[in-house]
Write a structure and sequence with these properties.
This protein is α/β, with parallel strands linked by helices and about 325 residues long. It contains 11 helices and 12 strands. Bound molecules: NADP nicotinamide-adenine-dinucleotide phosphate.
C-alpha cells in the first residue's frame, strides 16, 4: 500500500490505520483475543503500519495487549505507534478529563510501560479539556518530546479555535476527527484548516462503527454499545437502507464492496491522510486495503454523499 507523510512530521504512514478501540469491553464486549492478535500480526504484511490506540481503551487493556504482542521480535518496529491521553481513570470506576501537567507525564509513563516500548511515535490529546490551560498541556508535551519519549504531537476531536490555541504553543502534526459518509461536520471548517496548516488528518469511525458496511440488518442485536446508539435503532437502520441501496451500484462499479467503498470515499477527501478502521479480526483488514488503491471520481463522491445525507435526514427524522 502506498504510504503518506503525516503532516509536517517525518512519519510515513499507511492510508489505512488499525484502530484498537475494539479492545474496550465497555463499548465492544469481549472481542476474542486470538483473532485480534492475528489481525495485528497480519497488518504489516498487508502494508498497514499505522496503529491507533489510547490509554483509555479498556482502561489500559488495549495498550497492554499490544505490549504483549510487541514481545514478538521486531513487531514494534514495523508500526508507527499512536496513542492518546486525556481521561484520568486511576480512581477506579470514575473517570474524568485530566490534562494537567503531572497527569500527562504520568499517563505517558504508564502508556510506555503498558506498550513495552521506549517511545510513542504520535502522542495525541484525545479531546479538548476546558479545565487546563493550553500552555500547561504544551509544556508537558514539549518536555516529553525533549526526553525522547514522544516523537510527534496530535489532537483529536478539536475544532478550529481549539487547534489554534494549541498550535501556537506546540508543534502539532495531526488532527483525528470523526469522518465518514454519515459524519461530515468537519468538512466545513476543520478539514480546510488542516489543509491550510499542513496538519495530517486521521479519520476515525470511517465505517460509522460498522454501519456503512451494510451487514447489520434492522432489528438484529449486536451485543455491544451499538445496541443503544440512535443510528443503530431499528427505525434508523431501516431508513438508512435506502441510502445503502443507492451506494451499492456505485461501489460495484468501482469493483468494491460497501465497506471498501465507504473507506475509499473518506480517503478521497484531499485533506485526508489515513482512515482508521476499527479491527477485531484479520478479515476486517484483509479486504479493506483495496480501498486505498485510488480515489473516487468527484461525481461519484458527490452522488454517494448526497445519497447518505438524504438517508441520514430520514433516519434522524430531520426536516428536508
Ligand atoms: N479519537 C477518538 O475519539 C476516537 C473515537 C472512536 C474511534 N477512534 C479510533 O478509530 C478506530 C475506528 O473507529 P470505530 O471503531 O468507531 O469505527 P469503524 O472503523 O467505523 O467501525 C469498526 C467496526 O466496523 C466493523 N468492521 C471493521 N472492518 C470491517 C470490514 N472490513 N468489513 C465490514 N465490517 C467491518 C467491525 O464491527 P462488526 O464486524 O461487529 O460490525 C468494527 O468493530 C477505533 O478503533 C479507534 O482507534 C477514535
Amino acid at each position: 500500500m502506498r504510504g503518506i507523510q503525516l503532516g509536517t512530521s517525518d512519519l510515513k504512514i499507511s492510508r489505512i490505520g488499525f484502530g484498537c478501540w475494539q479492545l474496550s469491553p465497555q463499548f465492544w464486549g469481549n472481542v476474542p483475543l486470538d483473532a485480534w492478535r492475528a489481525a495485528v500480526r497480519r497488518a504489516p504484511e498487508l502494508g498497514i503500519n499505522f496503529l491507533d490506540t489510547a490509554d483509555a481503551y479498556g482502561d489500559g487493556h488495549a495498550e497492554m495487549e499490544l505490549g504483549k504482542l510487541f514481545a514478538d521480535k521486531g513487531l514494534r518496529e514495523r508500526f508507527v505507534l499512536a496513542t492518546k491521553f486525556y481521561w484520568n481513570f486511576d480512581e477506579g470506576s470514575f473517570r474524568f478529563p485530566d490534562t494537567r501537567r503531572e497527569r500527562i507525564l504520568r499517563a505517558c509513563e504508564n502508556s510506555l510501560r503498558r506498550l513495552r516500548t521506549d517511545r510513542i511515535d504520535l502522542y495525541q490529546v484525545h479531546a479538548w479539556d476546558p479545565l487546563t490551560r493550553a500552555e500547561e498541556v504544551a509544556e508537558a508535551c514539549r518536555q516529553l518530546q525533549r526526553e525522547g519519549k514522544v516523537r510527534w504531537l496530535g489532537v483529536s476531536n478539536f475544532n478550529v479555535e481549539q487547534m489554534d490555541l494549541y498550535r501556537g504553543r506546540m508543534d502539532l502534526v495531526s488532527l483525528q476527527p470523526s469522518y465518514s459518509l454519515l459524519s461530515r461536520e468537519v468538512e466545513a471548517r476543520e478539514l480546510p484548516y488542516c489543509l491550510t496548516h499542513r496538519l495530517g488528518v486521521l479519520a476515525y469511525s470511517p465505517l460509522s462503527r460498522g454501519l456503512l458496511a451494510g451487514t447489520h440488518l434492522p432489528g438484529a442485536k449486536l451485543g455491544d454499545s451499538r445496541d443503544e446508539h440512535p443510528m443503530f435503532s431499528e427505525k434508523a437502520l431501516t431508513r438508512l437502507q435506502a441510502g445503502l441501496a443507492e451506494l451499492r451500484p456505485l461501489a460495484e462499479a468501482e469493483g468494491l464492496n460497501l465497506a471498501q467503498f465507504a473507506v475509499r470515499w473518506v480517503l478521497s477527501h484531499p485533506a485526508l491522510s489515513c482512515a482508521i478502521v476499527g479491527v477485531k479480526k484479520p478479515e476486517h483488514i484483509e479486504g479493506i486495503v483495496k480501498a486505498a488503491e485510488r480515489t473516487l471520481p468527484p461525481p461519484v463522491w458527490h452522488q454517494a454523499a448526497r445519497a447518505m445525507a438524504t438517508a441520514k435526514r430520514e433516519a434522524c427524522g430531520e426536516p428536508k
